[in-house]
Amino acid sequence: MACIREYGGDVFHEGELTVQRRAGVEADAARLEGMLAPADLRGGLAQFLAGRTYAALAARDGDDRLWVAPVSGPPGFLEPTGATTLAVHAAPAPGDALHGLPADQPVGLIVLEYVARRRARVNGRLVAAGPDGLLVEVAEAFGNCPRHIPPRPLALAAPADGSVLDDDLVAAVDTFVLGTSHPERGADASHRGGPPGFLRRESAHVLVWDDLPGNQMFTSLGNLAVDPAAALLLVHPGTGRRQQLSGTASVRWDVPGSATGRQVAFEVERVVG
């Protein structure tokens, strides 16, 4: 298996390389390898994390199913306690798909500030988990560009009881979080955004969205090239109603009408909320 990036490494894994080649952006992606240097949560990144009130967590439940869950708290609830250690003073709530999630597993966090249109990704291993918080040993931590982040406050309602996909919610979202995973690299959470309707239902159990231009590393699509497990966190921009979806996803190429020619198809297997 070529070019697997182990924790703390600085190369792309085989799925990312496959997608980069297909998209013709290998040279552009190679210039970003410095972002994947060993994590360091000190300095400016520590200040950014300490001031945030919201993050989304990609991880697996006790049945090894991938989900994305919101975690939130007052400023300071994300506390770097060392260069590679992050204490999260919150945990997925009762009724959430990841409530009581098991520790000792790979996790991916995306930390978002919608009004300021800023975000950072923090990937590593969950070494402790309890009802009051999580402890993550961080392998990668880096900022992302503000592209496609809607500049508005985030509303987040309490978990709801439901297991049927909400079409009104799907039609309303202008942002969602995508969770993916790689068998050696671990879990990752990434942001997707666009005008309402960019995420749409294609059939009873399939959602699709066009893949818009990004940083060219193709972490999410690269993970899907190796492991189709995927998860979505949808939040209504007005009411804060949310649903968590778990299933599988695949990339379609040369799609007419898509800005990049790429489209992602997500097959819904489970719904919570």
TrEMBL record:
Domain of life where this protein originates: Bacteria
InterPro entries, per the entry: Split_barrel_FMN-bd
Name under which the protein is recorded: Pyridoxamine 5'-phosphate oxidase
Lineage of source species: Bacteria, Bacillati, Actinomycetota, Actinomycetes, Propionibacteriales
